[in-house]
């Protein structure tokens, strides 16, 4: 059971890091605070493109 929890936490940390990298990408591509102000559909499109390139 410990191994499962360890792997689960590790996956969660990796997902968080991917999201943080994406937010950083958005803010350098568009403008600071873009992740909070842009349209949700645009963010979803950009996230899919980001994942296909870097993941």
Provide an overview of this structure.
85% of the residues lie in helices and 0% in strands. The protein is mainly alpha-helical and 55 residues long. The chain has one domain (2-54).
> What count of domains describes the coordinates?
1
**Overall morphology:** elongated
Q: What structural class results from the helix and strand content?
A: mainly alpha
Number of strands: 0
Proportion of helical residues: over 70%
Mean pLDDT: 84
Number of helices: 3
Determine Rg (CA atoms, Å).
14 Å
Distance between the termini: 28 Å
What percentage of amino acids are in beta strands?
A: under 5%
- Largest sheet geometry: none
Low-confidence stretches: none
Order of helices and strands: HHH
Name the features:
55 residues, mainly alpha, elongated
Tell me briefly what this model is:
By secondary structure, the chain is mostly helical. The protein contains 3 helices and no strands.
